[in-house]
Amino acid sequence: MTELPLWPVIAIDGPSASGKGSVAERVAAVFGFHYLDSGALYRLLAYAAHTQSVSWSDAAKLADIVSAMDIKFEGGEAFLNGVHVSPHIRTEHMGKGASEVAVHPEVRTALLQTQRNFRKMPGLVGDGRDIGSVIFPDAALKVFLTAGVETRAQRRYDQLIQRGDTADYDTILEDLRQRDLRDTQRASAPLKQLPDAMLVDTTKMNIAQAVDMIVDAFKKDHGNYIKNALSH
Ligand code: DC
């Protein structure tokens, strides 16, 4: 049997509202890599469970739902069983649901292979909480992307207002604190800064600066790979 080449992965992990998604998508575009928004998978599960009246605490039923989910991403939009569901999963409520379903080891195991299947030619940028620790521990570059919780709350608030939603800064701040706690303190694959991860703190940095830092770090260590890939 021929061994499949292990295409390089850039793993970007960090807390909610740190800007991971925007940064990861742009880094992927720079290198022409695929992009995995792993948080969207947990959001899709929370949403699917909600529509089937399954509790976010019912690990066994949640794992069953995962095995029946047909997930597709096209142009940054998420489809569940052929239906466009992005607006439904990008709510604060489904963000909380995602964080709750994500504590169950059964759920994480059920979603493991789905995530690994995103690793395709010529490479992948994945963002989440455990991309560098569990999903792709052999990632070529690991990044811990974070920002102070008040900065993240302010960004989330601005985003919601811009979208025309109503928002309350103090509620967002409190929700983020609770999600940080749940995501970092759970027993199964908690969010943590790995010793081999590069720290990118965006508290005083914009998205373009964070993208540049990551692109430069990958080019520095993988210049030969990039040269070879681009010459084909
Ligand atoms: O990145 P996000 O805010 O869309 O993620 C929503 C929730 O999903 C997050 O609070 C925890 C969970 N999650 C996870 O446990 N592991 C991942 N790799 C990605 C997200």
Give a short synopsis of this structure.
The protein is α/β, with parallel strands linked by helices and 232 residues long. The protein has helices at 20-31, 38-51, 59-68, 86-89, 92-101, 105-116, 131-135, 149-162, 169-185, 207-231, and strands spanning 9-13, 34-37, 71-74, 77-80, 83-84, 124-128, 141-146, 198-201. The chain has one domain (9-227): P-loop containing nucleotide triphosphate hydrolases (Rossmann fold, 3-Layer(aba) Sandwich), CATH 3.40.50.300.
Instruction: State the end-to-end CA separation.
Output: 25 Å
Order of helices and strands: EHEHHEEEHHHEHEHHEH
The distinct ligands, each listed once, are: 2'-deoxycytidine-5'-monophosphate
Instruction: Report the CATH C-level class.
Output: Alpha Beta
Low-confidence stretches: none
